[in-house]
Backbone:
């Protein structure tokens, strides 16, 4: 599974398992069977390609939340998955980090599936699947789903207000 | 990087870790066969001399003795009380030699190299069906998360102090321990998502290496 | 070994390391011999994680100290620590954690406080001193009796720790019963 699908989780603090950035990236490569030396070299190249060469020897504990999440994404990407699943990746990030991560994610060649409860995160995506209580409620282009979703919220909060008035 | 390693380029730094470990092991064995205070005193001088070759920062590390002095003093006292003071002196000297020598190896050897030197000891694990990779992975995990746990504990103590005025309490441990387990579940998921501790190709390597000091 | 257990072990070792940073608390009425949070963490390892994982967590912790990590209370670390006369106590830690976990597992019917107290007392004190005292005797060339008497000043503090360990275990079991891996 991991070879085809890469998963990035919500909390950037609780995904990396190595002390420094380069080791964390290299781990994905050693997992695939490369030896230690190759992996380290490739990891450094990979970081350079993504404009993060300066992060290589930094301890992950010292990075900002946004940088950490970027490292998490890269450490999964280095394994060249065909599908990237991101589970609420922007939840703990500030606005600047959110923008940067979104930019990164949207620029990737992989097919991306992102889970979020915040609609603003979905700008730029092709298709939204609205899940409710374990069921697929709607599947369509962002604008349509957003309209339906907002209408639903209006309806629900509208009912609550009426009850309160009584 | 958290380590007692002393940055430097001395002859000791350049000696391979395995060799240093062997030397200390052999020295320990030999020293336990001897009981002469003179030999121990000479060895002590030699070891202190080695610290000196590391420069001023090396000699500063001898401050380690300060913490030990109370303990060693108590032991000498116990000898005196038992009437074996003069037998106690060489014993204390020997302890000093061994502690300083062992410490010398540690301060001139990077953790990375130390780990690599002892990895062969984990080979037998493979005979009983366990992976030799896992200890290396565990070392990385602890080094990654020890600072994180320290931060969390620190914040909890601050919050507790703000609420109760007291700096410490056993009451901090239950939530810390529970959080610890919850967090480790998250990390285990992330590890699993990248192939787990076994890797995706059978006998995989581990990119260990707390290189940056 | 399942990855989940592996990570639990590593995290608990990290916890023990973090506890090394908490300054020792001196108990005034016991002559001021300070008790450290770290040894409390070691006592709890077996109680929380069970015998094997608890023992391995403490062993992993010691392995890191041996490699050069300054995780021992007071910022100590490296091989020098293992050449000290108190090395026996360090060796006793993982064994004690194992025994403590074993007792927790062997007493499923008993109330958690009692079970944890016994585990902490036997594993955390009895076993540890069983290794510690002969260690001092050997390294310092003292008769066992003298070494025992010398180490005895720490016992009152350790007894306080036993009570704390039991309280902590009870609190955890109440808050999150699934967290007591020794009992699941």
Residues:
């Amino acid at each position: 599974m991991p070879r085809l699908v890469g998963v990035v989780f919500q909390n950037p603090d609780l995904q990396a398992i190595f002390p420094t950035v380069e080791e964390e990236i290299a781990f994905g490569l050693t997992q695939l069977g490369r030896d230690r030396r190759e992996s380290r070299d490739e990891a450094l190249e990979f970081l350079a390609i993504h404009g993060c060469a300066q992060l290589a020897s930094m301890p992950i504990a010292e990075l900002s939340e946004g940088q950490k999440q970027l490292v998490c994404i890269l450490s999964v990407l280095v394994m060249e998955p065909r599908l990237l699943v991101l589970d609420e990746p922007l939840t703990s990030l500030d606005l600047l980090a959110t923008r940067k991560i979104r930019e990164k994610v949207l620029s990737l060649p992989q097919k991306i599936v992102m889970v979020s409860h915040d609609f603003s995160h979905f700008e730029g995506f092709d298709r939204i699947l609205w899940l409710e209580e374990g069921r697929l409620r709607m599947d369509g282009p962002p604008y349509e789903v957003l309209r339906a979703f907002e209408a639903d919220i209006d309806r629900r909060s509208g009912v609550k207000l009426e009850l309160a008035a009584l | 990087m958290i380590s007692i390693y002393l940055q430097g380029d001395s002859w000791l730094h350049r000696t391979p870790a395995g060799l240093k470990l062997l030397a200390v092991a052999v020295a320990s064995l030999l020293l336990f066969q001897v009981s002469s205070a003179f030999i121990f005193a000479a060895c002590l001088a030699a070891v202190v001399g080695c610290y000196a070759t590391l420069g001023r920062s090396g000699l500063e590390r001898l401050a380690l003795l300060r913490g030990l002095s109370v303990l060693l003093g108590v032991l000498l006292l116990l000898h005196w009380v038992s009437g074996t003071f003069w037998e106690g002196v060489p014993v204390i000297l020997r302890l000093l030699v061994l502690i300083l020598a062992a410490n010398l190896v540690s301060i001139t050897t990077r953790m990375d190299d130390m780990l690599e030197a002892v990895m062969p000891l984990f080979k037998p694990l493979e005979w009983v069906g366990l992976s030799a990779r896992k200890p290396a992975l565990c070392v990385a995990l602890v080094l990654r998360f020890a600072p994180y746990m320290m931060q969390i504990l620190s914040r909890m103590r601050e919050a507790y102090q703000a609420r109760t005025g007291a700096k410490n309490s056993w009451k901090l441990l239950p939530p810390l321990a529970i959080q610890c387990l919850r967090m480790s579940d998250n990390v285990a998921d992330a590890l699993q998502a990248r192939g787990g501790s076994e890797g995706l190709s059978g006998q995989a390597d581990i990119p260990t290496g707390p290189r940056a000091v | 070994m399942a990855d989940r257990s592996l990570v639990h072990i590593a995290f608990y070792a990290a916890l023990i390391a973090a506890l090394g940073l908490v300054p020792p608390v001196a108990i005034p009425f016991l002559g001021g011999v300070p008790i450290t949070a770290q040894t409390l963490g070691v006592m709890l390892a077996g109680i929380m994680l069970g015998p094997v994982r608890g023992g391995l967590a403490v062993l992993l912790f010691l392995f890191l100290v041996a490699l050069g990590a300054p995780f021992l209370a007071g910022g100590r670390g490296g091989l020098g620590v293992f050449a000290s006369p108190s090395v026996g106590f360090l060796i006793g830690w993982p064994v004690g954690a194992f025994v403590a976990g074993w007792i927790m597992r062997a007493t499923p019917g008993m109330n958690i406080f009692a079970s944890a107290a016994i585990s902490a007392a036997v594993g955390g004190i009895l076993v540890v001193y069983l290794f510690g005292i002969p260690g001092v005797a050997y390294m310092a060339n003292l008769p066992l009796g003298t070494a025992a008497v010398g180490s005895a000043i720490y016992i009152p503090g350790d007894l306080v720790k036993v009570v704390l360990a039991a309280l902590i275990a009870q609190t955890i079991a109440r808050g999150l019963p699934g967290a007591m891996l020794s009992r699941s």
Remarks:
- Chains C and A do not touch (no CB pair under 8 Å).
- The first helix of chain C runs from residue 3 to 19.
- The domain at 3-179 of chain C is CATH 1.10.1760.20 (Arp2/3 complex 21 kDa subunit ARPC3).
- The CA atoms of residues 107 and 126 of chain C lie 18 Å apart.
